[in-house]
Amino acid sequence: MSAIILSAELAVWRKTERERLLRERDALTQEVLDERRARMDIHLERAFPDLVHGVVAFCWPYRNEYDVRHLAAALRRRGARSAMPVVVAPKTPLIFREWHPGVELVKGPLGIPHPVGSPEVVPDNVLLPMVGWDGDGYRLGYGGAFFDRTLAALAKRPRVIGLAYEQAYLKTIQPQAHDIPVDFVVTERGVYRREAEGLKFLDNPEAFSSPPCYAGEIAPGYFGEEPKA
Q1: Residue 60: Cβ within 10 Å count
Q2: Where are the domains of the chain?
């Protein structure tokens, strides 16, 4: 019985923290979002130049998440294939379908677009948004546990790079047996690598004074901003 009570208490705590973090993120101005995105773009490009090889999976930005679409476009121009996750059914692993401009998008759970009709692929790298993150590399997501199930089910685990803002840091998410930590965390501050003792900060934030900006390179409608319901 104590384990059941603990599990219920933890679920309530995570729900409360998730709602708090989402409120704080929703309150960010577009100017702040653009500045953080630009800094995270360059952190990712400098730390992970090999993202241009193979398949990189990303998620359509939701509720002021880091907008990875600009980086994904730049990676595609250099040879990468990009993909997005698709929810098949509740409590089952996700699949990934290739996406690039021109591939049809439809709205899935939470209204987040995903591709239809394109080939199913296995990603080499996953750029994974996080509502919250802790010092051991564990992720607080939206509560469906889809990515934990997916990573556990893949025959070959991809490199997983968690994406979040510094303000979303938690001392611990109180991880459970099913929680799977990410390999790296990238924030507007820089890059953290998961090691045996926890996350280690790698970058000097003062080195990133001139981050790239891809916004001017993207034509209106490039991202398929009007997915079908």
Answers
A1: 24
A2: 2-217
CATH superfamily of 2-217: NagB/RpiA/CoA transferase-like (3.40.50.10420)
The amino acid that residue 92 corresponds to is: T
With 0-12 CB in 10 A as exposed, 13-18 as middle and 19+ as buried, what is 51? buried
Note the pTM of the prediction, 2 decimals.
0.90
What is the C-alpha separation between 148 and 89, in angstroms, rounded? Answer: 15
Between the CA of residue 26 and those of 30, 38, 81, 86, 127, what are the distances in Å? 10, 18, 30, 24, 21
- The structure tokens listed for 168 are 């979303």
pLDDT digits (tens, 9 = 90+) for 195-229: 999 999 996 655 555 556 565 566 667 776 655 55
Distance between CA 71 and CA 52 in Å, rounded?
A: 10
